[in-house]
Amino acid sequence: MNKHLFICVAAVCVLCGCNRHNQSFQYNVDKFYDLEILRYDVPEFDQLTILQKQLVYCLSEAALWGRDILFDQNGRYNLRIRRACEDLYLNYPYEKGTEDFAAFECYLKRVWFSNGIHHHYSEDKFLPEFTQEWFVAACEKAGVTYDEAILPVMFDPAVMPKRMSQQDGVDLIAESAGNYYGEGVTQAEAEAWYAAHKDNSSEPMWIGLNSQLVKNEDGKIEERVYKVGGLYGEALEHVVYWLKEAKKYAENEQQQIVLDKLIAFNETGDLKLFNEYCIAWVKDLDSRVDFVNGFTETYSDPLGITGTWESMVNFKDLAATKRTQLISDNAQWFEDNSPTDKKYKKEEVKGVTAKVITAAILAGDCYPATPIGINLPNANWIRKEYGSKSVTIDNLMHAYNEAAKGNGFNEEFMIDDEIRGIYEQYGAMCGDLHTDLHECVGHGSGKLMPGVTKDALKEHASTIEEARADLFGLYYLADPKLVELGLLPNKDAYKAGYYQQMMNGAMTQLVRIEPGKDIEEAHMRNRQLIANWVLAHVTEGQAEVEIIERDGKHYLRINDYDGLRRLYGELLAEIQRITSEGDYVAAKEMVETYAVKVNQELHEEIRARYAKLNLAPYKGFVNPRYIVERDCESGIITDVKLDFTEGYIEQHLRYSRDYSPLPSVN
Ligand code: ZN
């Protein structure tokens, strides 16, 4: 669903074998309802120059000052509700050990998590598990005042039940609680207004990316633009202040241009400047520190026009970038030595260097729930003419992995202590390396025969392509070349990756499939395709790999790792042939036989075992706290330090206290 910000789809159970992370770091912070809060480390921050640290700090302030905007975009009562609840929480007049208080605290935590009163993922309004009478009485006793209009919004299930409606045949604006349109604006009126105001004279641009449409006293539609002096101006003023501060520490001229354009855009609301900002941002490839700050994704507006506010500050992960560079430098060796037919190999192959970043602060629509990658800008014409930036965020992935340690998943699904041990040590390392091989050399390997086009495999093209890149990575994961290059520490480490792929592809990824459903998503199809093809092609009487039953539970067992590698190689050769020849019939047969259908009994068993582990389906983060040291006389920042001790409640209360400039009604 989310095109440009991809949410973690990896099986979040890879354990971290990485030694760049502080062993005593506390990744797990809080768990409530269907949510788990994690903390992420910011490795390599200490290695930034003082200028880069100052820059990160200023940009992180610019990020935090936008928090209220998203609450208000998500619903016009959200700030009123959040503030009343926070006020009651801080001035709670009774004993706190009661069920009512626990329900109230849980509700407030969920409001913080969703930046409003609708579930961040399902978009359904969540109802308090305490009564309206209880809330009213507690507020009265505590002296908390609030707008009475919030009561039905909080407690009546029929009022604003959906943040965004996607139902056919209804007025999407009337049925959505999102605050992109003022009261009384109909979908037809908004669409007519957009059509009339589209600017076709200059380069394509989005009308309405940064505005709310409202009805004025005469019943006419008016645009309220998000800008300094306009809608959300009280927050954007602070954002602009910190962007100006950041400019003092910019790493180079191009980054200064980026900041100038973004400042000017926030001051004027002029979308031409936003386009210029996007173009300047795409061109800034040299800066180590980078950021997103503004109205970006349009998924929450039922008409898909207005952007939700978000920010993420990050910097290049040099260790990971070095790793991908090394792989990419050896691209020709990988191509020449792969098990595919010589006629399908590229004579000259170029590796790609994957860009890996470290997140330093998350805000707005990136917080607390967050993407694990960024692929921006969104405007297609800019992407076509100027390119885009696509990065993965390594430290967030590591936090997911680390936090999953000890959650019982591996104990439940891995066959014995031996493989669990190997996995604990090398699982994350293999996961990273496999991704690198997939991205840096896998997709780029091989060639098409003359006359064969990229879309020859039609609807199966992406499954086959992902399988091809995955198999390329799997085949080489076991190669001594990786140990020789220093990418793996010994000749057995790859076993963690092999076990993970087979277990996930054949069994555990099924936890994400609803009962009775087929597998639809290309990456999931590709993983099952590989695992099931291998299981169907083991040598008779040898069973290189098999699924066995023990005490009514099924487990994957690998008996012969070399044999498994040979099977991966055979499948890679065939998938490369299918791709190079554009053999649609074989692709269809392969996908339909191994990738789509789910073994119903196994599925049921896996889901039941998974449910017993009681893992939270949604995860989000707390941010680190940046602490600055300043020169007493000049006020200049002399150092920036990180603090990782803040809890979830503390953090949100602090943000609401220190970074909450918007009025309750905007
Ligand atoms: Zn891929």
Describe the structure.
The protein starts with about 25 loop residues before the first strand and ends in an 8-residue tail after the last helix. The chain is about 45% helix and about 15% strand. It has 24 helices and 14 strands. A 5-stranded mixed β-sheet has the order 5-6-7-9-8. The chain has about 675 residues and is α+β, with helices and mostly antiparallel strands. Helix 9 packs antiparallel against helix 10. The model is unreliable at about 1-20 (pLDDT under 50). The protein has a domain at about 300-620. A hairpin with a 6-residue loop joins strand 13 (about 625-630) and strand 14 (about 635-645). It binds zinc ion. Zinc ion binds near residues 438, 443 and 469. Zinc ion binds next to helix 17.
Task: Summarize the structure in short.
The chain is α+β, with helices and mostly antiparallel strands and 666 residues long.
Shape: globular
DSSP helix count?
24
Mean model confidence by pLDDT: 92
* Widest β-sheet, arrangement of strands: 5-6-7-9-8
Structural class by sheet pairing and helices:
alpha+beta
- Distance N to C terminus: 30 Å
Q: Radius of gyration, Cα only, in angstroms?
A: 26 Å
* Largest sheet report: 5 strands, mixed
Small-molecule binders: zinc ion
Count the beta strands: 14
Strand content: 5-15%
Q: Helical proportion?
A: 40-55%
Low-confidence stretches: 1-21
Q: Features of this protein?
A:
single chain; binds zinc ion; alpha+beta; 666 residues; 3-stranded mixed beta sheet; 5-stranded mixed beta sheet; disordered N terminus
